[in-house]
Write a structure and sequence with these properties.
Its main location: secreted. The relative contact order is 0.22. The N terminus is likely disordered. The strands form 3 sheets. Strands 3-6-15-8-9-10-11-17 form an 8-stranded antiparallel beta sheet. The chain is globular, with a radius of gyration of 19 Å. The longest helix is centred in the last third of the chain and has 13 residues. A hairpin with an 8-residue loop joins β10 and β11. With 285 residues, the chain is mainly beta. It is 9% helix and 39% strand.
Length: 285
Amino acid sequence: MGCSRIVILVYIFSFFSFMWCLVLAGDFRKDVDIIWGGDKAKILENGQAIALSLDKTSGSGFQSKTQFLFGKISMDLKLVSGNSAGTVTSYYVASKGAMWDEIDFEFLGNLSGNPYTVHTNVITQGKGDREQQFRLWFDPTINFHTYSTLWNPRTIIFYVDGTPIRQFKNMKTMNVSYPEKQAMRVHSSLWDGDDWATRGGLVKTDWSKAPFTAYYRNYEVQNCVGSNETCGGDGSSSWINEGIDDSGMKRLKWVQKNFMIYDYCNDPKRFRLGLASECVANAVS
């Protein structure tokens, strides 16, 4: 991996009695804690990259030192190459407790030559079941690609290399729960999910190929501190008011038409008591 030069910028703006800040961070030594896996998680390139490994004894993972209410999180990942069946590379933000909130990217491995599945989910107050899954339009094991999550008071958007692939809007006026009260941390891990990850668990992890390794770099967080109603309310922080413009909507529809392989809103057999409220609202709109 080539070493990337990261510039760290901090802007602080006082808005009445509240404060927002934009932080572009680039040193894993300062920004994250290794929370499991011991030496299977290695910080490389003077803090500019992390390698997570998985073998039959253990996976590995890290989490951000700071937590935040709303933000835009980006990271470059190069996923496990070769026969990655059964492995799960996760990258998400989450709060704690029984009524936790969580916004998930999970990358489900596959047999050599077969595509990864990008598994996304939004969990609010401990309730998930909002999965959408995608294929990618490139091989994510050859080069680094940027995966981003925007989370602001209006919407959650999942991006791949700047292209939106999914949007989950704040529809609390329609009694759809939305994560807006609990601060979250960034988490990432590489773990064995062969009971479900590849073809519903039919394809198991081939431990003769271990260790499996995924690489991360260019960790960037634009985060908000203070009131969720006034943070960046003057428009000085673009991400706090960010949505999908007409050009982005065309790209979103292109991805969902050509690369989406599962949508919980199109699975009435699974949800026999009725689809989620947001699915019905989106179908009407």
